Amino acid sequence: MIKGKDSVFLSDRLPEFLSKIKSDIGNQYDVKFFVFGQNVVESDTADFSDGKTDISSLLSVVNSRYYNRNLGAMILLSDGIYNSGENPLYQVRNLTFPVFTVKFGDTTVNRDLIISKVNHNRYAYKGNQFPVEVLVHAREAAGESTRLVVTSEGEEIFSRNISVSSGNQVFTIPLLIEAKESGLKKYRIVVENISGEISLENNARDIFVEVKEMRQKIAVVANSPHPDLAALKRALEYSNNFEAEMFFVDNFTANIADYSLYVLHQLPSASNQSTRLMDELTRLKIPALFILGSQTDIPRLNRMQAGVSLVGHNNSSNEALPALNRNFPLFIITEQMENLFADLPPLVSPFGNYQISNATYSLAHQKIGQLKTELPLVAFAQTADVRYGFIAGEGIWKWRMHDFAANGNHYTFDDFVVKSVQYLSQQTEKGKFRVFWNNYYAENDPVEFSARLYNDSDQPITGPEVSIIITSEQGKEFNYSFSINDESYHLQIGSLPAGLYSFRAETDPGTGVLVKTGNFVVTSLILEDVNTVADHRLLDAIASETGGISFFQDEIDKISETIRNRDDIKPVVYSKRRYTDLVDFYPLLILLILMMGVEWFLRKYSGSY
């Protein structure tokens, strides 16, 4: 909102208006203030710094918080532009109170060139070309010419001329970029500005691509057909880092050493112990992700000593919900993953006494009914030279479907599978000092690291201090120290400006300084710059659908009077009746006794008795 013509009003008159409306109707109503952007916060102070605007979230939060309470009305101050969450009109259908909207912003379409979207993959492979698609939106720029330029490390690697022929035109520009060197690479995309543009901030985008040496091949081997298999394969295809192939064990004749990781669905099984496959995986020290189910041969799996064993299994099962372990140290758990795991359907999990090794870490425990247990549902084990993963239940296809039902996409489930496979397929870290981080963080998300330190006996220790220096592209350094979290270290440093960062983490356990280095990207949020044209029709529709009224900002002083004059916005008057024993009300009791005594005396005196 502060990018438009109302910025002066918002900085000068908005605090005055909030104070006035509270003084005008505060005696009759309990007035609460909320600030919304990416999150909804109860506050009367707004700094307009959030990178996203989610109007539907505001409506949902207020409706939930005041459900079945006498909420008279909501006053919504907005420009009608939202770039996160669902269409607010879907939420207003659930509201039982009127919404009065105040329309800010400029509905005039001004001259502007906008890079509205860039489609690209996060990963590419050295020596290959990877596709990029750029969408350029030209508004009120008919007859103008410009140029789209892509640079890498200061060198121009692509350019194309653009001629605008109409007042509102969208150009889709495909291009191929050669991945020459491995590592995390930054590419800057710029559409050169023209005279009279209202904003230049939306003329440029930075994208980051991790160039890898080679793709890893993954074999998904199953005992029999199952809907889990399609969910796993599609999740693995989400990452260009992996090439997944699917087999049924009865027909599996491939060279076992050709694959860097195996996903084994209900294998070994009672009908096929897969002896050759299991023995070769152990001999070649190839990591595997075991998905347990009703067909799994539990005794054969126990003999592999892979870090998780099941004692007392009698071929029965439980429906187990996932209870996320927020102290899981092996990779970063995102907020989206936390939200997803809090509401997932149960898996059908083999029943028994689960036993885990000291080097096994549970991402999620089993929750059976309302009972949270320490039994692993999703776990990862580190043996001497190889890593194993376990999903102790079948039915994860329902998790992927639930992700789509809740969020409209499969990103969070796919990210969970990819992170699990990435951890398992990495070369086993044998060093004493191990650091874990994400390659990508959003500009509004906290940057997090975790670390583990081991002694000569490969036991985790947390005595020595762990520090880190993070360096931006401009050479600015940020110094931090990790905090201790159980047997590991953790660091959350809040959000960082968009850009490419490198880091150097170090510690000294007393035998010399240990160092880990790496890099990561903070991606920018430019959603607020893409659309700057106010949507007053949306605000009118919200008011109309809820029985409210829509005002322009110069009519803002009319709101208090309108609310006071509404017959349907009245305070609720409650009466309260209380009964008290007479013997507990001493003054009245004494008065009654005194009056009775006087009456008795007068009657006695007059000879009535």
What do you see in this structure?
The protein has 609 residues and is α+β, with helices and mostly antiparallel strands. The protein has 4 domains: 7-108 and 533-564, 3-Layer(aba) Sandwich (Rossmann fold); 112-213, Immunoglobulins (Immunoglobulin-like, Sandwich); 216-425, Class I glutamine amidotransferase (GATase) domain (Rossmann fold, 3-Layer(aba) Sandwich); 433-523, Sandwich (Immunoglobulin-like). The protein contains 13 helices and 34 strands. The strands form 8 sheets. It has a 9-stranded mixed beta sheet with strand order 14-13-15-16-23-22-21-18-19, covered by helices on one side. Strands 6-12-11-8-9 form a 5-stranded mixed beta sheet, with no helix packed on it. The radius of gyration is 33 Å and the shape is globular. The N and C termini lie far apart (91 Å).
- CATH top level of the largest domain is Alpha Beta
Looking at CATH, the homologous superfamily of the largest domain is: Class I glutamine amidotransferase (GATase) domain
Tell me the fraction of residues in β-strands, as a range.
Answer: 25-35%
Mean pLDDT: 87
Helix content: 10-25%
CATH topology of the largest domain: Rossmann fold
- Low-pLDDT parts are none
CATH architecture of the largest domain: 3-Layer(aba) Sandwich
The shape is globular
Content-based structural category:
alpha+beta
- What's the number of extended β-strand segments? 34
- Cα gyration radius (Å): 33 Å
Counting DSSP H or I runs of 4 or more residues, the number of helices is 13
Question: What strand line-up does the widest sheet have?
Answer: 14-13-15-16-23-22-21-18-19
Q: Give a quick account of the main beta sheet: strands, pairing sense, barrel closure.
A: 9 strands, mixed
Give the oligomeric state. single chain
Count of distinct structural domains: 4
Ends: how far apart?
A: 91 Å
